[in-house]
Amino acid sequence: DSGVTQTPKHLITATGQRVTLRCSPRSGDLSVYWYQQSLDQGLQFLIQYYNGEERAKGNILERFSAQQFPDLHSELNLSSLELGDSALYFCASSVAAGSSSYNEQFFGPGTRLTVL
Amino acid sequence: ELKVEQNPLFLSMQEGKNYTIYCNYSTTSDRLYWYRQDPGKSLESLFVLLSNGAVKQEGRLMASLDTKARLSTLHITAAVHDLSATYFCAVENLQGAQKLVFGQGTRLTINP
């Protein structure tokens, strides 16, 4: 158990809908990362937050957004869902934002999203 | 742009054999991570390699890093069935915000 929690574990929804995925980082970690894992795209970095602020953006679609709250939990919002958004979404956390310290990330159990 | 490539992508081997997974990356970094993923599960951190020549060992797995060659290896010694999983290397991008860039993963199947 990495200490990172994600809810829900599974989500089944229809095209065009909107869903919210939730992540709580390990105690003491300030950075939260979101990743999407699909068979065709592999593991793709979506976005990073550090202590409530957006730090880095990866291959995140405009239909997707995220935020990190004062208690450091994070939510990933996916809207106007398409079939191709079906994937495993992971949250990871780390202590630092980077620079002088290394950035080992600890992954949550993931949320499996199925869009029908 | 940092790119990370693993090979092989699929590896089927017999118990008791040795093999190596390779991870090549395209730009300078001295921070490399190996993760294990079981089917449908999360990623488990295996090794953190932070300098040129770093070598880490845990059980039958040994990882090393050559930053000059931009190459890391994950060596499996006397494989056992429990090591069947997908293994990912990830390189930390040192420019700008330090995100991890993952390789494609190596699906390892160890047959009795």
What would you note in describing this structure?
The complex is a heterodimer of chains A (116) and B (112). Chain A is an all-beta fold and 116 residues long. Chain A is 0% helix and 52% strand. Chain A starts with a strand and ends with a strand. The model of chain A has no long low-confidence stretch (mean pLDDT 92). Chain B has strands at 4-7, 10-14, 19-25, 32-37, 43-49, 55-58, 61-66, 71-76, 85-92, 100-102, 106-111. By secondary structure, chain B is an all-beta fold. Chain B is 0% helix and 55% strand. The mean pLDDT of chain B is 92. Chain B has no helices and 11 strands. The A-B interface holds A 2, 33, 42-43, 45, 48, 55-56, 58, 88, 90, 92, 97-99, 102-110, 112 and B 31, 33, 35, 40-45, 48, 50, 88, 92, 96-102, 104-105.
Protein topology:
The complex is a heterodimer of chains A (116) and B (112).
Chain A: E1 5-7, E2 10-13, E3 19-24, E4 31-38, E5 42-50, E6 53-57, E7 64-68, E8 74-78, E9 87-94, E10 106-107, E11 111-115
Parallel strand pairs in A: 2-11
Antiparallel strand pairs in A: 1-3, 3-8, 4-5, 4-9, 5-6, 7-8, 9-10, 9-11
Chain B: E1 4-7, E2 10-14, E3 19-25, E4 32-37, E5 43-49, E6 55-58, E7 61-66, E8 71-76, E9 85-92, E10 100-102, E11 106-111
Parallel strand pairs in B: 2-11
Antiparallel strand pairs in B: 1-3, 3-8, 4-5, 4-9, 6-7, 7-8, 9-10, 9-11
Please provide a brief summary of the model.
The complex is a heterodimer of chains A (116) and B (112). Chain A has 116 residues and is mostly beta strands.
